[in-house]
Amino acid sequence: MTFAQKGHVVAPGLVSSRQLAELRTEALRLRRAAVSCRRAGFQLTDDGRLLGPSRRFRAAGSVLTNFAFAEDLGRDLARITGLMVEPTRPLRASYLYYGRGDSLALHRDLPRCRVTILIWLDGPVGPLNVHPELVGVPDEEYLGLAIEAGGHLSGGVKIDLRDGLLVLEGHTVPHSRPPHSSDRELVLAAVPFGTMAQSGS
Question: Which fold has domain 3-200?
Answer without folding.
Answer: Jelly Rolls (2.60.120)
